[in-house]
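Bumping my old thread because nobody answered last time. Still need a sequence for this structure:
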C-alpha cells in the first residue's frame, strides 16, 4: 500500500533492514581465540572454513561480508552489526570448524535465540531461505501495523474529531477517505488540521466509483490517505 516505506523501521537496538534491500544481508564474524599471531595454523583453518562458507553463500546470491577485525572482541562487533540492522549474523570459531556448523542469529523474528546451520553445499540455499522468511515476517508485521493505524472515514468531521487535541505522540495515524482532487481544499485541510495527502493507494482505487468526497461532497476522484507528517 505504501510500498517499502512501511517495512522500514527500527527498534531500541538500532536499525532493522529488510533483507531484500539490505546492502549486507549476512555478516560472518570469525572468532579466533588466540589470533593469527599466536595460533597461525588454527587461524588458517578457521579462515579456510569461513571463506568456503562465504563462497557458497555468494554463489547463492547472498550479499555477505566478513568481519576480520581481530583486534576487537566479538561482543562489540556483534553489537555494531545489530545496530546497523544487518539481517543475519553468523559466528564461526574453532568448535564450529570441528562440528562443521555455523552459529546464526536473526536481527528480526528470532527472539534473540541462536541456531545452527550446517556448512556445505546447501548452506547458501539455507541462508537464502532464512532471509526470505525474515523478509516475509517484516512485511507482514508492517502491514499489520499499517492496518491497525488506518481509519476509514466518510466525513471530514470524523477526521477533525479524531485529530482534535492529538500531537506527534498520540496522533491516530492514517485516514482513508473518498476524495475529489482539489489543491485548494487540501490546503484548507492542512491549515485546519495539519494533515495532508500521503498517497493515493493503488489497491483501494477500485472503491471510489459512486462515492462523494468526504470534504466537499463532490464526486470522488480518488481514494486518498490523509495523515500528519512529523
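Sorry it took so long. Here it is:
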Amino acid at each position: 500500500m505504501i510500498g517499502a516505506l512501511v517495512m522500514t523501521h527500527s527498534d531500541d537496538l538500532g536499525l532493522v533492514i529488510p533483507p531484500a534491500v539490505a546492502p549486507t544481508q549476512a555478516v560472518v564474524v570469525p572468532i579466533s581465540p588466540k589470533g593469527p599471531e599466536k595460533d597461525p595454523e588454527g587461524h588458517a583453518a578457521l579462515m579456510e572454513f569461513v571463506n568456503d562458507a562465504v563462497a557458497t553463500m555468494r554463489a547463492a546470491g547472498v550479499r555477505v561480508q566478513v568481519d576480520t577485525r581481530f583486534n576487537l572482541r566479538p561482543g562489540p562487533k556483534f553489537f555494531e552489526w545489530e545496530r546497523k540492522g544487518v539481517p543475519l549474523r553468523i559466528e564461526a570459531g574453532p568448535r564450529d570448524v570441528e562440528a562443521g556448523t555455523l552459529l546464526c542469529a536473526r536481527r528480526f523474528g528470532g527472539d534473540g535465540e541462536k541456531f545452527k546451520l550446517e556448512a556445505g553445499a546447501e548452506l547458501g540455499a539455507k541462508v537464502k531461505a532464512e532471509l526470505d522468511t525474515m523478509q516475509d515476517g517484516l512485511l507482514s508485521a508492517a502491514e499489520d501495523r499499517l492496518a491497525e493505524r488506518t481509519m476509514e472515514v466518510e466525513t471530514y468531521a470524523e477526521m477533525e474529531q479524531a485529530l482534535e487535541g492529538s500531537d506527534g505522540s498520540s496522533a491516530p495515524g492514517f485516514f482513508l477517505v473518498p476524495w475529489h482532487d482539489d489543491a485548494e481544499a487540501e490546503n484548507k485541510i492542512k491549515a485546519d488540521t495539519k494533515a495532508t495527502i500521503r498517497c493515493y493507494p493503488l489497491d483501494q482505487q477500485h472503491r471510489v466509483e459512486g462515492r462523494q468526497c468526504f470534504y466537499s461532497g463532490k464526486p470522488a476522484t480518488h481514494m486518498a490517505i490523509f495523515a500528519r507528517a512529523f
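Residues 102 and 117 are 5 Å apart (CA to CA). Let me know if any region looks off to you.
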